Amino acid sequence: MHKNHQRFTFFSSILLLSMLCGAASAADWTLDNEASQLNFVSIKAGNIAETHTFDELMGHISESGAAELSITLDSVNTAIDIRNERMRTMLFDTASAPKATIKTSIDAAMLNDLEPGQSMLTTVEAMLDLSGTQSTITAELQVFKLNASTLLVSTHKPILLNATNLGLEAGVEKLREVAGLPAISLAVPVSFTLLFTAS
Questions:
Q1: What is the mean pLDDT of the chain?
Q2: Judging by beta carbons within 10 Å of its beta carbon (0-12, 13-18, 19+), is residue 197 exposed, middle or buried?
């Protein structure tokens, strides 16, 4: 009788552990804004490149692998106040469209199979909604599971966006004129490092 009780307790513990591990591997993930960064590069006057950021990001990855990133455009940070304001009003028109969103899907099975310390490369098609214009972008991502409750998602290669395709060409021209520059490139490399915690 005692052995049967021990055997029942042992198998019950194994079953509970399996359920807990399954729940952890199939978690929802929430973006940690303070530990995340999204950068874009502007190239002006032919060969002068400057890196800018957005300071306010929100995002999540669902148990099914559906991922969404929301960018507060007013949080653009170029390290120069007047340039920040010009980007808000002339380029992004944040009064009408305060946020940009990126939606995509990550292979849930591959994500759930990651063990702490393991990483994977995946290429995704994403929908970018920026200032009322939607466009499909391709991104090569590296997903690294730091531990059971922390996930790091970063661009393996910069994402090359084109301001014309995003409906921003007129805004770029306004910025060029007001700054008195000979040219501002319409090609915009974007990269990010996003930290997610299990929720």
A1: 90
A2: middle
Pairing of strands 29-31, 48-54: unpaired
What pLDDT is stored for residue 19 in this prediction? 42
Phi and psi at residue 37, in whole multiples of 5°? -150, 140
The half-sphere exposure of 93 on its side-chain side, counting CA atoms within 13 A, is 13
- Residues of 137-165 as b/e, b for ≥16 C-beta within 10 angstroms? bebebebbbeeeebbbbbbeebbebebee
CA–CA separation, 102 and 153 (whole Å): 14
CA distance 45 to 54: 23
- Taken in order of first residue, the domains within the chain and their CATH numbers are 27-198 (2.40.128.110)
Total residue count of the chain as it appears in this document: 199
pLDDT above 90 coverage of the chain, percent: 84
Name the token pair of 189: 């490399």
CA distance linking residue 104 with residue 68, whole number of Å: 6
* pLDDT per residue as tens digits for the range 126-156: 999 998 899 999 999 999 999 999 999 999 9
